[in-house]
Design a protein that fits this description.
- The protein has 27 helices and eight strands.
- By secondary structure, it is an alpha/beta fold.
- The protein folds into four domains: 194 residues, no CATH class; 150 residues, no CATH class; 122 residues, no CATH class; 68 residues.
- The strands form two sheets. Strands 1-6-3-4-2-5 form a six-stranded mixed sheet. The chain has a two-stranded antiparallel ribbon with strand order 7-8.
- The longest helix is centred in the middle third of the chain and has 24 residues.
Length: 595
């Protein structure tokens, strides 16, 4: 859609707008309730003599028709038609025009509504060719308007002036498409609008509220300057929050179409003193609360707008400062990731008025409260109830590692983290790799023997048996025996290995787990360590997001043993890895609790 100016009813008249309601649209359906509400809203709006103040209706969506300069009314038929009927009742002859593509009699009837509306429907029209559902509702609307003015004893000239000059619509103009696509495109837009998929957001409505009332009583030039100032500042804020890195630092949710909404939500939720009948489930709850506060300000509306906009800027500046501070970014980002909300954190700083140092310590205390009772020696992947805790520990480990890298500007990428579903990757495969060939079987058994020798575990009783089985396997493979015979020897090898080195098959504790997206985890599967290591390197080369500690694990950054073998994830590697986790998270977790 193109830009969205706000047009007065007089402007629609002066522009000689000629609206067309196409045949795909429903007929006129407003009842006495909607018509009366519109009349009351216009009547109760008090401009206080300010030439620049006005009452803003919901938007209308239009598209210019190339061949005849008419305007297709895609959305807003009910409002535009009702205003037309009110203008007719007020005897304003110079009105805009409305045509109904498949209801020509409706166009004729409504153009003579000030005459036809005075007649009793059943007596005058029920048995005539004017008896259709649209005309009936036009007639009922006219009768409602007549009754309203009679009961209210409203001065028509005053109301007419207010309607034409102080009532405006938000004008959304759709850019015209090719003639062939024009109607189809209009139908698509109409369908999306009326299925609730296109509507003004809270922020868009609040913006209109601010701009309309920004400087009441001032000259037009000053009003324009102030409106431009707010609009430019608004765009600056929206530009920053459009950055996914910023958005996912403060939220776990998919961003809305106008991300600035969340600032208004913060401000609205900070106050709870309103005694108003607005349900929080209402999609426009935030705007309705703002509108209610605004309506209660009477002569101080321009001051209210100024003060409220200052609040918006202050909230944004606070969040921006948190985002730009590396430590705050990571501490807050972690809390948000484990289901704290930015509201919880923001209200805390507002209520306690902490210094930055105190605020950081408070955030660390919140994290400590969350994880301090985790017993890292008992956490096991095999226990479903432990998996969330392990995820939290490993996420915090990655984040604190980033914080500790003081000489870099690196940051944990919360935006990329939240684009993925995450799982726990077994560094040494939880299940033995898919051994579906003699070559893989030989690699597995030979690799296990080599690892035992490197780890200096050859003194265990049973090692000699494993060597013998492995040699027999190699001989069978050289003899090219059938696969089933080799598989039987493999099963025997694994049975003896588990009996002799049971601790090497205890793979579900924290020292054998790392964070990895479910997508990449599935791609790696149950490969050997050296195969997983190669995959991790290849993924990172292709631009995949690998958390820093997961990358470090597979590059063996934590392994203290200079003789460590890059092809195996040994017991010593696991011990060194767990020790680094403990050291990195020492300020959060109590390690005195052991098995």
């Amino acid at each position: 859609m193109s830009n969205t100016p706000i047009k007065s009813i007089s402007k629609l008249i002066d522009d000689k707008c000629h609206f067309i309601v196409e045949d795909y649209q429903r007929g006129y359906k407003w009842t006495e309730t909607e018509v009366t509400q519109l009349l009351n809203d216009i009547n109760e709006f008090d401009s206080k003599g300010y030439a620049d103040s006005f009452y803003c209706l919901q938007p209308i969506v239009v598209k210019k028709v190339k061949e005849n300069d008419k305007i297709e009314l895609i959305d807003g038929q009910q409002r535009v038609t009702t205003i037309f009927i009110i203008l007719s009742y007020l005897n304003i002859s110079n009105k805009y025009k409305i045509d109904y593509k498949t209801r020509e009699s409706s166009a004729t009837f409504i153009n003579d509504i000030n005459i036809n509306g005075a007649e009793n429907w059943d007596n005058k029209f029920k048995t005539t060719d004017k008896n259709n559902i649209d005309n009936y509702h036009f007639h009922k609307a006219y009768a409602c308007i007549n009754n309203w003015f009679s009961k209210k004893n409203i001065d028509k000239d005053t109301f007419s002036n207010k309607l034409r000059n102080n009532v405006k619509v938000i004008w959304y103009e759709v850019l015209p498409s090719t003639d062939k696509e024009s109607k189809q495109e209009s139908i698509k837009i109409f369908t999306r609008i009326n299925s609730g998929k296109i509507q003004l957001t809270n922020a868009e409505l609040i913006k209109a509220l601010f701009l309309i009332n920004v400087e009441q009583g001032k000259n037009a030039e000053l009003v324009q300057l102030k409106q431009n100032e707010i609009a430019q500042q608004w765009d600056t804020i929206e530009y920053v929050v459009q950055n996914d890195s910023f958005w996912y630092f403060i939220s776990n949710d998919t961003p809305p179409s106008t991300r600035i909404d969340f600032i208004f939500d913060l401000i609205v939720d900070e106050k709870t003193e309103e005694n108003i009948e607005i349900k929080k489930t209402d999609k426009l709850y935030t705007f309705l609360v703002y509108n209610n506060r605004f309506a209660n300000k009477q002569n101080e509306k321009a001051i209210w707008v100024h003060n409220e906009w200052e609040k918006v800027k202050n909230v944004f500046q606070t969040l921006k400062e948190w985002y730009e501070d590396r430590e705050l970014y990571h501490l807050i980002g972690f809390l948000i990731s484990i289901k704290f909300t930015i509201k919880d954190i923001y209200y805390n700083i507002k209520s306690n008025k902490e210094t930055k140092t105190e605020f950081k310590q408070d955030l660390k205390n919140k994290i400590k409260t969350k994880v301090k009772d985790y017993n890292i020696y008992e956490l096991s992947y095999a226990e479903d109830k432990h998996k969330e805790k392990i995820n939290n520990i490993l996420l915090l480990y990655n984040i604190q590692t980033e914080i500790n890298n003081e000489n870099t500007n690196s940051r944990y990428q919360f935006d990329r983290h939240k684009e993925e579903k995450w799982s726990l990757e077994h560094i040494h495969a939880q299940k033995q790799p898919s051994l579906n060939s003699q070559e893989k079987i030989e690699k597995y058994t030979t690799g296990f023997i080599d690892y035992i020798i490197i780890a200096n575990l050859t003194q265990n009783e049973g090692f000699d048996s494993l060597k013998d089985i492995n040699k027999e396997l190699s001989d069978k493979i050289k003899q090219k025996v059938i696969f089933d015979e080799v598989k039987q020897l493999l099963d025997k090898f694994i049975k003896v290995a588990k009996e002799t080195y049971s601790d090497l098959f205890d793979l579900d504790d924290l020292s054998n787990l790392a964070l990895l997206s479910s997508r990449l985890n599935a791609a790696i599967s149950n490969g050997f360590f050296d195969e997983k290591r190669k995959n991790i390197i290849d993924f990172e080369k292709k631009g995949e997001f690998i958390p820093i500690c997961t990358r470090n694990v597979f590059l063996k950054y934590y392994s203290d043993d200079q003789k460590t073998n890059l092809f195996y994830w040994s017991n010593k590697d696991r011990e060194d890895y767990l020790e680094d986790i403990k050291c990195t998270l020492k300020d959060y977790i109590d390690y005195t609790r052991k098995k």
